[in-house]
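Notebook p. 47: complex prediction with 1,3-dihydroxyacetonephosphate.
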Amino acid sequence: MSNFPEKIKNLQNEILKLKEKHDFLILAHNYQVPEIQVIADFCADSLKLAEFAKKADSANNMIFAAVWFMAESGAILNPTKKVYIGNYEAFCPMARGAPEKLMKKIKTINPEIPLMMYINTTAAARAQADYICTSANALKIAKLINKPLINFAPDKNMAYYIQSKLNITVNPIPLKGCCIVHEKFDAKYIKNVKKDHPKALILAHPECRPEVQEITDFIGSTSQMFKFVVDSEFDEFIIATEIGLLQKLERETKNKKIYKAHDKPICYNMKKNTLESIKYVIEKQPEEYLVTVPEEIAEKNKVLLNEMIKNSQ
Ligand code: 13P
Ligand code: SF4
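Predicted complex, structure tokens below:
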């Protein structure tokens, strides 16, 4: 915590004391700002956050510095804990692309086609899925389904990723669903960065468009990209994902050079979590930040989440 301004350090120390006093664990996604990442008990991708939350038993409360669906997964997997979100307005906009009504309709029209859903959805919509996945295990899960045709919601780019790697047909539902942050990365910009840094490897999240996926050296979840850089013999990397992961890499891999693949790779929803909002939630535990899921939806999701975790090993 030594490189932060005094005001930030004071806030971090207050949160660390409040966390002990009110018996909280802080779980942060890799896209959080560095001052949150460093005070978290655990900071990772959505699969690892779900796995951590499932097993967490050293505190009675958890706060997710993340977006809703991640906190919902924690609440479903570990129902004996109280799970809070660092800002109740932190919502993944892509989740709106797969509303419950549309998913029900798809299952009614095509009951025989497996419906695989990305975890970046609401728990209510996901209850309609046959299988769920994160970016870390999408290929593994699709391989296990072992069918030549699957419906996939709601990210058209991840559908392309699965289709191109496994050589099966993956119908994107809806046709244009995507992440507004990753959709902005383009191959021309990245090729220009590569011209300036010819030795750099190109890494991308599978939410990036096909033209970006096609020029990469590695595609993976945020934690998989982190591991790839840490383990790599190479020293330079162009990374097409949100800035929070690049900042984590810069902090934790001192000898590696990390280059942005876009001018402003920022997820403003993730950034709605702030030190101030986290302090407020831990101190006051307001009802509207408490993550609850109706029982029937939670039960169906628990089965899907546990199956996904088991199949990711
Ligand atoms: P990861 O599971 O790879 O961290 O991705 C979550 C996400 O929202 C990417 O935009
Ligand atoms: Fe959702 Fe995209 Fe933000 Fe990830 S980066 S939380 S997919 S909007």
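Notes: The first strand starts at residue 24 and ends at 29. The chain has a mean pLDDT of 97.
Next step: compare against the earlier run before touching the bench.
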